[in-house]
Amino acid sequence: MSLRARLTLVCAAFLTLAAGASAFGAVLVVRANDQRRDHAKLVKAIEVAQDLETTYVAEAASIRAYFLSGDPKSLDDYNDQRTHDSDANGRLQGLLLGSPLIRRVDAVNDAARIWRNGAILPLITLQQATGSSTDVIEKYRDGPAVPAFQQIANRLRTLRTGVADATKRSAARADTARDRVIQFSLSALAVAIATLLLLRLVTHVWIARPIRRLTRAVKDGDVDPRAVPKRGASEITSLTSAIKDANLRLREELDAAVRTREGLSQTAEVLMSIRAELAVTPQTLPSGWSAAAQLVPAAGIVAGDCYNIDSIDKNSASIVVVDVAGHGAGSAVVALRAKELLRAAARSYENPSDAVTWASAQLSDLETDMFITAFVARVDFTTGLVRFVNAGHPDALICDGVNVIGLARTGPLIGPFAGKWEQREAVIGPGQMLVCYTDGVTEVRNEKREEFGLDRLRAALQENYGEATGSIVKKCLAEVDAFGSGRAHDDVTIVVIARALPM
């Protein structure tokens, strides 16, 4: 039987036992509550019966006082007591509703009605008609009034005795019900503890012990066939067999990994060299000028983006920013090749348009699906003049704290097909900066699939205007990273060249 089936069976048995115990316990609790309520009613009935007896005695005393004195106040007291014993009768009947004792209450009421109507009412009429207390007292003493009241007393005694006996029996039943609840609770606790111990034993035998044995075997580095249990849960036997097979595979993969590591160690130096060449640290610029740049690969350490700021002479420098379709090692090699060609061309040709045309001809052997965007410029540090070519690249920006000017595309992408690129000019004025970037900056998306976009980049540049170029680059990249949802899907590059305000 599988481990799942065993555990399911144990859980089903436990739940069935728990459900049955809960139902039985609920019945016991309900019965105990009923017994307690019945007992409380009977205790209250004893109090009301005593109150009723007291009321009848007071009623008899009031009517005798009226017969002796003829005082109307005594008659009023008699009528008040009648009202009180009527209320007490109603409460007593409510407390004993459904009990055989209700018949004894009715017997008391019948005796009281005979006493009032058959014995007391004629005497009250005689007293009111003659005003002679002597005759009325004789008739009260010798007539049916006294025996009739004695009948009330006897029936009240019988009622009290019956209620008292019923109260004792009810108390015994309530105690018995309470004891049953306590006994059941203790029994349920004992069964629960026994069940937990049983579950612990079952999990030890079915799960913990086999896994402990298997752990020791794996820790020793070898899963002996004897470690595979012949009996027991099918999941455990399957797991043991699977670990044994995995152990063999791991040994094979370890050997392969050693060989791979040796191969990687031979190529790591090449990759690190390529990575260093993709993002060359800007050289020292003339006084009043500063530059900073950073490349963040989408994966690994190499990228399809690259940049270069290369001094041509003491008053000018070339700027090359390249973005090859895709990312990774393949794109990095193409990007490095394109950068070096454009760098060499920028030093050889005074006009960036000629440099791009020559480099494009050298890249005509690229595959038809491999395209390159590039921004190539020559900056004159004396005048701030920028001559540039934008080959299908995102608009470079000349900006300060207020204005932003875009350097739009001046020709097609660089690829296996010939093209023509127009050269344009712009000026980096005092207090302005030239910002070049790749589409990985503006096309990063957040969780709502919204792009970071050019407007957010412009806002970030203006917000950090006036800070050092290195700080501007880092803060812009931080905003891009915070905006994006998870890992970037494209390489990200930002290059900033700034001209200071005159002192």
Walk me through what this model shows.
The chain has 3 domains: 3-195, Up-down Bundle (Four Helix Bundle (Hemerythrin (Met), subunit A)); 223-276; 279-499, PPM-type phosphatase domain (Phosphatase 2c, domain 1, 4-Layer Sandwich). The chain has a 5-stranded antiparallel beta sheet. A 5-stranded antiparallel beta sheet has the order 2-3-4-5-8, with helices on one face. 62% of the residues lie in helices and 13% in strands. It has 503 residues and is α+β, with helices and mostly antiparallel strands. Helix 1 (3-69) crosses helix 4. The chain has helices spanning 3-69, 72-95, 102-130, 133-142, 145-219, 234-278, 329-348, 352-362, 439-442, 453-463, 469-483, and strands at residues 289-296, 305-313, 316-324, 372-380, 385-391, 396-399, 404-407, 424-427, 433-437, 492-499.
Counted beta strands: 10
Q: Can you identify the CATH superfamily of the largest domain?
A: PPM-type phosphatase domain
For this structure, the CATH topology of the largest domain is: Phosphatase 2c, domain 1
Overall form: elongated
User: How do the strands of the widest beta sheet line up side by side?
Assistant: 1-10-9-6-7
Query: What's the helix count?
Result: 11
As for the number of domains, it is: 3
Order of helices and strands: HHHHHHEEEHHEEEEEEHHHE
Helix content: 55-70%
Largest pleated sheet: 5 strands, antiparallel
